[in-house]
Write a structure and sequence with these properties.
Strand order of the largest sheet: 1-2-3
Strand content: under 5%
Number of domains: 2
CATH architecture of the largest domain: Up-down Bundle
Distance between the termini: 67 Å
Radius of gyration: 23 Å
CATH class of the largest domain: Mainly Alpha
Number of helices: 13
Oligomer: single chain
Order of helices and strands: EHEEHHHHHHHHHHHH
């Protein structure tokens, strides 16, 4: 970036203490300044309302990874999803120990669908954290990791939907497979959009939100189908529709923050480090994933309790 170091920069306070860790010492010695939006290259200028707190372009994986120990405008984006991925990586152990012995009817299928859920969430959050950590590396790496970040969103949608389809159509396997296939094809279509380089450009922010919003809205198709076939009361419990509503609320709020760039659009520079729209969206996605997990546990209990009596339903909806 021409003339970058000759421009005025915001100094980061250096500690006078002796730093024993070589990693931390190198971080302090190599990352001396935070930059303003105008000082960043065009390919990094994503949000004109975030005016300060930018890391310099590192050109180094080591330096980018070391920036996790600094305070800048990506810190909260990194930590929110990094810690969330760790949480969802550890949760399966106590959950498995708690629920697998709860019902004699619990099977490998339950373990698989819970595994799909946790895998989708962990991959999505981990990829997101990695993207924000490496976003100051270079134009190429930022573009590549951004593309992976969008793919991670698809992993999250797919991984969180499959378990609900399993329990929502617990007694009708052919309907399970119908919706598995339909939703997987929708995810594949979104992946094709995601792999288009134009898709990640800042000017397509609203378009991206609409595409992922449409994928999220496709939740309604199996819900409406299930209610039509089995009735509202049954599907309310089979698919934990109350908790699914909480999930949609969190994701909807996150989409509003992200698309409208609230609150930094109203108060430029005030939320550069903490409280920006992208950070709020991150927290909303974590809360949404937790709501889905609670709902999934509720669906599991219902499927293996009073909702697991399937004789009449299975016989009534066989092919042929």
């Amino acid at each position: 970036m021409s003339g970058l170091h000759s421009r005025k920069a915001v100094k980061v306070t250096k500690t006078e203490k002796k730093i024993k860790s070589p990693m931390l010492r190198e971080t302090v010695e190599t990352e001396q300044v935070l930059l303003t939006w105008e000082q960043m290259p065009d390919w990094y200028q994503d949000n004109e309302y975030i005016l300060s707190g930018y890391r310099s372009i590192s050109g180094s994986y080591t330096h980018s990874f070391h920036s996790i120990y600094q305070i800048h405008n990506e810190t909260l984006n990194i930590l929110s999803h990094l810690l969330a991925s760790l949480l969802f990586l550890l949760l399966p152990v106590p959950i498995y120990n708690s629920i697998i012995s709860r019902y004699a009817t619990a099977s490998t299928s339950d373990i698989v669908v819970f595994g799909v859920f946790f895998l989708g969430v962990v991959l999505s959050f981990l990829i997101s954290a990695t993207y924000h950590l490496l976003s100051n590396h270079s134009s190429h790496i930022r573009a590549l990791s951004c593309q992976l970040d969008y793919l991670g969103i698809v992993f999250l949608f797919w991984g969180s939907t499959i378990p609900y389809l399993y329990y929502g159509f617990f007694c009708t396997p052919h309907l399970q497979y119908l919706h598995y296939t339909t939703f997987s094809l929708l995810c594949a279509v979104v992946v094709s959009f995601t792999l288009n380089p134009s898709f990640r450009q800042p000017k397509y922010r609203t378009y991206r939100t609409m595409v992922y919003g449409a994928l999220g809205a496709s939740y309604l198709l199996p819900i409406l189908h299930g209610v039509h076939v089995f009735g509202w009361e049954t599907q309310w419990r089979r698919m934990s529709l109350g908790w699914m509503g909480v999930m949609l609320l969190f994701n909807g709020l996150g989409a509003i923050f992200y698309t409208m760039r609230i609150p930094e659009k109203w108060y430029p520079k005030t939320f550069d480090i903490v409280g920006a729209s992208h950070q709020l969206m991150h927290f909303m996605t974590v809360f949404a994933a937790l709501a889905l997990l609670v709902g999934l546990l509720s669906a599991f209990d219902f499927a293996h309790g009073e909702g697991g009596v399937c004789g009449s339903e299975v016989s009534g909806f066989q092919y042929g």
